Amino acid sequence: MRRSEATPHQPLVTPPCQPDSEKNTPGDRVGQGATRRGGRPLPAGTTRMKAGVARLLASMLLARSVAALAAVPRRLSVGAGHIAATAAVGSVAARPSRHGLIRMMTPPPAGESAVAEAPKVQAAPVVLPTNENSDRLLRIRHSTAHVMAMAVQRLYNDTKVTIGPWIEKGFYYDFDKEKPFEDKDLPRIKKEMVKLIGLKLPISREEVSYSEAKSRIEAAGETYKLELLEDIHTRDPAAPITIYHIGEPGKARWWDLCAGPHVEHTGQLPADAIELETIAGAYWRGDEKRPMLQRIYGTAWETAEQLADYARLREEAKRCGIFFFEG
């Protein structure tokens, strides 16, 4: 029975990936017993040549298909007996070959991207503590301002202190210094602060009378502090006058006219979460007719991780052209 004469009970099943030249039947040997469609015998070697041509055509088709896919983002996987190419957008057409089905991608319609966008994962918003919801943070910032002032007066003994409050993102302190600070001074001041923090010096509160406070301030030559003391006494003569000391009792200590609050000792300040940022000018008590002071801004947080988050937000604000207020 010829290969083309299939009976209803014995259908001829030919794998789609197999060319006619390789439909094997008993006696259909390469170069032996092969026939044309009309039944006439083929010259020896003809079937071998047809098989070679078929393989060549299949290879050319495969190469052309892969080249067509090169312009489309895809993932190409070669498995046993087939090649499958997949893309994010586009239609699929299948073509039989001796190597199996070659899936060919057609380009996406005009205006559509061939690359599927990955789902955007929004990062969780950074939530930093504030002075209002963290008493510890407020104490850290206020005490750090005092430690900075102490470090400045240890390094530059001709400097007078004024005020040093905590602010929204950290702290600042205003100084009266004959020669203005420069940016290169900040690392030196920070180094001295780290030294004071490492000493774990106690921070203690002392309540004194108005006359006693005045005597001490005058002896220290702190004219700005004397003005502040007079204002307190004028508003309320019965108001308590408090001084905060940094250092061991009986030894040389630094002190400031202050209402607090503060940490218990300098060792409670996280040195790796403190950064001195900028230097600016500021008139005493905001009056342009009064002396121009030197203000050092700093930031302080509870942990180094919080400082890193703050620094990242600050840099993002700068890239976006947003003015990042220090206060």
Helix content: 25-40%
β-strand percent reads: 15-25%
Mean pLDDT: 78
Number of helices: 6
Low-pLDDT residue spans = 1-35, 73-94
Number of strands: 12
What best-fitting shape do the alpha-carbon axes yield? Answer: elongated
Largest sheet: 5 strands, antiparallel
Radius of gyration: 43 Å
**Helix/strand structural class:** alpha+beta
> What is the H/E order?
HEEEEHEEEHEHHEEEEH
Span between N and C termini?
A: 98 Å
Would you write up a description of this structure?
- With 327 residues, this protein is an alpha+beta fold.
- Helix content is 30%, strand content 21%.
- The protein is built from six helices and twelve strands.
- Strands 5, 6, 7, 11 and 12 form a five-stranded antiparallel β-sheet that branches.
- A hairpin with a 2-residue loop joins strand 1 and strand 2 (82-87).
- Helix 4 runs antiparallel to helix 5.
- The protein is elongated and about 115 Å long.
- It starts with 45 loop residues before the first helix and ends in an 8-residue tail after the last helix.
- Residues 1-35 and 73-94 have low confidence and may be disordered.
For this entry, give a set of tags.
single chain, 12 strands, five-stranded antiparallel β-sheet, disordered N terminus, alpha+beta, 327 residues
Write the layout of secondary structure elements.
Blueprint: H1 46-69, E1 74-79, E2 82-87, E3 92-97, E4 100-105, H2 135-155, E5 160-161, E6 166-167, E7 170-176, H3 185-198, E8 203-208, H4 210-220, H5 223-235, E9 241-246, E10 254-257, E11 274-283, E12 292-300, H6 304-319
Antiparallel strand pairs: 1-2, 3-4, 5-7, 6-7, 7-12, 8-9, 9-10, 11-12
